[in-house]
Amino acid sequence: MICLIRIIFLLFLFISLGATQLENAPHYNELVSRFSHSLIQNWTSQIVDFQSILESRDYLDYQRKIFGKYSTNPSLIDAIRKLSLFDVCTWFDPGVSHRCCTDLRVVLMSLLSKEMWAIKMIDSCGKIPSGIFFGDVFFPGSFDECLSIAAITNDGHKHFNPKYCQIGIHLPMARTLFNPKSLLTIGVCVPNSCSASDIKFIFHTGISLSTFWFGGKDHTFVCHEEQIFTIQAIVSLAVCGLVVVLLIVGTAYDVIGRQLAKLARLAKLQKTKSPLTDLQRPRKPESLEMTTIQSTPTSNPDDEQTNSTQLEITQSSKKTGKIGKFLVCFSLSKNARKLLNTDLPKDSLAPIHGIRFISMTWIILGHTYVFGAAFWRNNNFFLKKVISFEFQAIGNATVSVDSFFLISGLLVVYVGLKTMKEETGNKDWLFYYVHRFWRLTPTYSFVMLIYIPLMQYWGDGPYWPQKGMEANYCRHNWWQNLLYINNFFDTQCMGWMWYLANDMQFYIISPIFLLLLKKKPLRGLILMLLMLIGQFLITSFIWTKKPRDPRIDNDPEIYMRPYNRIGPYLVGMAYGYFLHRINCKMTINRFLSVLLWLVAIACAVAVLYGRYGNYHDDLMTKEEAAFYTAVHRSVWAIAVGWVICACVTGYGGFVNRFLSWKAFVPLSRLTYCAYLIHPIVIFTYYFRQRFPMYITHFRAVHIYFGNLCFSYLIAFVISMAMEAPTIAMEKMLRQKKTAEMTTKL
Predict the structure, then answer these.
(1) Which residues pair with 139 in a beta bridge?
(2) In three state form, how does the secondary structure of 17-72 look?
(3) Is 188 helix (H, G, I), strand (E, B) or coil?
């Protein structure tokens, strides 16, 4: 019996490890060599025990016929051929289902008969290549080949459909930064009657009998199963369908309505023209006539009539029902024109659009490397390249998020003080909060509704998460995201949304600073300075209270908490107050301008390359690391803030011309949706891979541009489907409220 189980386990081992390729992996070559030698060496001694078992079941004659002269030192293939004649399933009951065991026996017999489908099943299993010590610890085999096999024996009988499974063998030597569980993962092709628990039983039984230590009991067993639509997925599809209908109907209503309005205006103008003027005036084609009417300058003699006609149209549009106005909010034509419009008000801060877009591209670049490292055959490539000098600008891409915090704080104060100055009476603080919540939450919720329940159906493959990326469909923590408090929890739904939680929390406390800066500016600035110093002290204390690696910058306790990330937001608020105070006009001499530019560049370089020594035997002390962690994000914000300040006050030169390029305006408007969607795009690309990738910088950049383009393409779709309609609805309701207040007055 022991010999029987050993040989079956050895079959699984050879199927999964690819015995023909083990010569390139010394440790595993030793593993199989020792295991096979032990099997053959102990065959004679164990056959006695096996015979006694068979005697107890009246199989003595059967045993003699089978083993005969092969009772000592048989070849492996002969041993497997003999075992295929036994009722193997008797010995595995009840640990392995009878159907699974029967189908495995069919595979074994068909393999010995050299049937092609059985050979394909072996071929589709993962095999160990070279490069294990370079980070290649995932051997998926051929997922598509396994599922395409038809298990039809020579007699024409179809026994089963193959199923793809993965065995994660726990080996300490397989541990890497991107494989913390120390799993060497191997794909196997088995009958669909076998479950993960069946494979687990066979595997663990074999391990318990093996003379080789496999490193522990933390092995994993996962099988690819057919996906069934859940209630959450059906609801999500229904909502998406409703949005599509609204987009189609709203666009048709808007386009047809505008065409009818043009025809009505033309008809009205034709009726008001005198016959004499009509005869004297040269006749134009209809298309040119419509263009002339639409672009008539204010000095045209027909102005009064045109204005009166436009007034009638405006008045008639006001009579449009609520349903009509609601549908127009979903007009793709109208919303696309608004999004792609590059005209900006004279007092706008144009360079912010360029900085916002460049920061978003930087985030996508960093995530392309970080998210993909677990899918690379040579993921030690990342560990070696991350310490190079030229890679520091990519490795420290986390400060790009601080550019967004800077811009948020700057705009909150700059725009807030400007509107408070223009408004008469008290500011509507309720609208201040409702506007922000409405601006972010519908689009945020829409992306969650699509991503969480539907992602599992977007693809398949050896990497693909069959239950989606989020644990248990975010059933227990989705509310944290919608309340914008998810950054206080280590286990988050859509982990990259910690940024939105921080930004919302900073926005909630911003009225305190706005009121102080309006009424008592000095007190407001002092409060910001005290909070900035407090952030430095808190971050330093948290860093030093327990041992930390100064090379790692993603500890949630420091990276995601608002009291550690508010520094750049405070710096942005200070810049916003300064620009408001000087009305974006400043006069300084050229020497001071150049000096400030050099200081800003030095600050940015110090932040990006300040930790370079950590990777080259010049590790920061505990105090140095705490200081750097506490202040480097605010220093980065000071540098980027000067770029904005210099550009809008006339000291930006070619930098201002580049950042103010009008092509950045629509791309900047898509940044919010791009941030929401870009990790999903990256995950989808990587998880759909069939085999580990051998990465190079060229290939990584190639993947990056694909991620960038697709992220912005899908961001445009999300913006048209949800972001733009919600903004239009807010404006519609705001105008209605203003009209009601005007009527009362």
Answers:
(1) 186
(2) HCHHHHHHCHHHHHHHHHHHHHHHHCHHHHHHHHHHHHHHCCCHHHHHHHHHHHHC
(3) strand
Tell me the three state secondary structure of residue 223.
Answer: strand
Helix axes 724-744, 429-454, angle to 10 degrees: 160
Instruction: Give CA torsion, residues 323, 325, 328, 329, to 10 deg.
Output: -100
Structure confidence at residue 47 (pLDDT): 37
Q: What is the DSSP letter of 613?
A: G
What are the start-end ranges of the H helices in 373-428? 380-385, 392-395, 399-422
User: Residue 26 in contact with residue 129, Cβ under 8 Å?
Assistant: no
**Spatial separation of the C-alpha atoms in residues 677 and 444, rounded to whole Å:** 10
Q: Which structural domain range is residue 280 located in?
A: 231-330
Q: Cβ contacts of residue 242 below 8 Å, gap of 6+?
A: none
Residue 468 has a CB neighbour count (10 Å cut-off) of: 21
| 370 alpha-carbon distance from chain centroid | 11
Rounded to two decimals, the pTM is 0.82
* Domain annotation covers residue 335: no
Q: What is the rounded CA–CA span in Å between residue 117 and residue 134?
A: 34
Across the strands, what pairs with 188? 165
Asked whether the CA dihedral 17, 19, 22, 28 is positive or negative, the reply is: positive
Q: Token pair of 489, please?
A: 């929890």
DSSP secondary structure letters along 494-513: SGGGHHHHHHHHHHHHHHHH
Of the candidates 172, 169, 163, 165, the one whose C-alpha atom is nearest the C-alpha of residue 140 is: 165
Query: What angle is formed at CA 255 by the lines to CA 251 and CA 256, rounded to 5 degrees?
Result: 115
Indicate if 359 and 284 belong to the same structural domain: no
| Overall number of domains in the chain | 3
Q: Can you tell me the distance from the alpha carbon of 108 to that of 11, in angstroms, rounded to the nearest whole number?
A: 9
Distance CA 291, CA 735 (A): 30
Quickly tell me which residue has 């009840």 as its tokens: 94
Judgement on whether residues 258 and 191 belong to the same structural domain of the protein: no
Reported as a single tens digit per residue, the pLDDT across 503-561 is 999 999 999 999 999 999 999 999 999 999 999 999 999 998 887 877 777 788 899 99
Show which of 159, 192, 223 is a domain's final residue: 223
Residue 106 contacts residue 152 (beta carbons within 8 Å): no
Domain co-membership, 219 together with 237: no
CA distances, 645 to each of 138, 587, 593 (Å): 50, 12, 11
Q: Which residues of the chain are modeled with pLDDT < 50? A: 1-11, 13-74, 276-318
